[in-house]
Amino acid sequence: MCIILKKEKNKMNKKITNRNIIKQTNNLTTAKYKLTALEMKFIALAIAQIRLEDKDFNTYTIKISELEDKFGVGMNETRLKSFAKGLLSKPFEVKEGKNWIVMNWFSSIKYVHNEARFECRIDDHLKPYLLEIQNHFTKYELASLVKMNSIYAMRIYQMLNTSTVKAKAQLTIDVKELQDLLQVPKSLLGYGQFKQKVIDIALREINEKTELKVKFFEHEKIVKKVISIRFELHNAIAKNTITNFIAIIKKEYANKKIFQDSEKAYFLNDDELLSIDKDNITITKYLSEKATDVYLYLYQNKDSLVKY
Predict the structure, then answer these.
(1) How far is the C-alpha of 152 from the C-alpha of 179, rounded, in Å?
(2) What is the DSSP secondary structure assignment for residue 106, as one 8-state letter?
(3) Which of 68, 111, 129, 178 could form a disulfide with 28 if both were Cys (CB 3.0 to 4.6 A apart)?
């Protein structure tokens, strides 16, 4: 879409947002919806302005110069209005156990002409999915998401950053389920086209433009038909970085709990890395390469480690 827009004179207004990490619940990440790449980035810019301690939504500002500077597109006022109306016409579905809820991303999007900016109000129904989240959450980097061009790459990138996937360092999913979550068109329901136009492009963008390193496998086949697929996370953190992190953990968390996610609590017993499940029944000891994988997971969640 060819669009033109007025630039703001103040270059400081081109700064996107001070917060780079977006946090949302896993069931919002796996919600069923269909957006354009620009709409996905616009939503992410708004959500990124929510502070971790917020108990309610505020009015969030997105300057038109931000969109132009970061995404390389501009919009005249007619197209701005069309964009806002289009986004408000795209409800999405979130599953809550056997229940489901259909809602909009925003309750309102206001354009302030003299200041060339949007004022957005996130729909109140999204509060449980974006505010005061403790468990079953997704954390991902705004800067990584906005670099991607494929909406499918953005969605898969989010899914790979759920706490469940990070804990296992892999995502195994039925092809039909993923196609349904991504709301791909009928032309991409055949596996060959889906692999070429969705999976391959998503893998290339995620591996080239984000902090994740992902490998892909065809997990299950019946005769020659691919039924399920698997994404494996291979972290690219420098070896000396993780070595130093492990040394700090062993010093600061000796015989203490290190981190709690939705499934397990991780702790050190003397020099051994262990976890116990949420029901306090199963204790797992991590040795060798598996211990390194868990330390990588802890490093990815270093901002949420237990404070003493």
Answers:
(1) 10
(2) E
(3) 129
* Closest C-alpha among 78, 112, 61, 110 to residue 5: 78
Looking at the domain that runs over 11-140, which CATH code has it been given? 1.10.10.10
Residue 41 CB coordination number (10 Å): 23
**Structure tokens of 3?**
């669009």
Average of per-residue pLDDT across 280-292? 83
In whole angstroms, give the CA distance from residue 146 to residue 37: 9
Q: SS3 string of 222-266?
A: ECCEEEEEEEEECCCCCHHHHHHHHHHHHHHCCCCEEEECCCEEE
Start-end ranges of CATH 1.10.10.10 in the chain? 11-140, 147-236
Q: Judge whether 3 and 72 are in contact, CB under 8 Å.
A: no
Please answer whether residues 233 and 286 qualify as being in contact, where contact means their C-beta atoms are separated by less than 8 angstroms.
no
For residues 203 and 262, the answer to whether their CB atoms sit within 8 Å is no
CB count in 10 Å sphere of residue 291: 15
pLDDT-based confidence at residue 11 (cuts at 50, 70, 90): very low
